[in-house]
Amino acid sequence: MTVVLPDSGHTAERPSWDCRACGRPWPCDAAREGLRGEMDPVALAIYMWVNLEEAVRDLPPGPALELFERFIRWTR
Ligand SMILES: [Zn+2]
Fold this sequence. Notes:
mainly alpha
């Protein structure tokens, strides 16, 4: 598995929450893979909840389930 560290560029641009490196909605596949490699599942889930709360403030209102899938579901 390739570990993508935060300085690899696959980080969230704010307030759009698109990836700085590939332009896809963050966390993109590369970011997810990197975060999984760096953190244990509990720390990762907490980290992504924090990011989700930040994103909710930045992004226009949308389906909560969509954000849950995007930020949280893949950490399980
Ligand atoms: Zn990316």
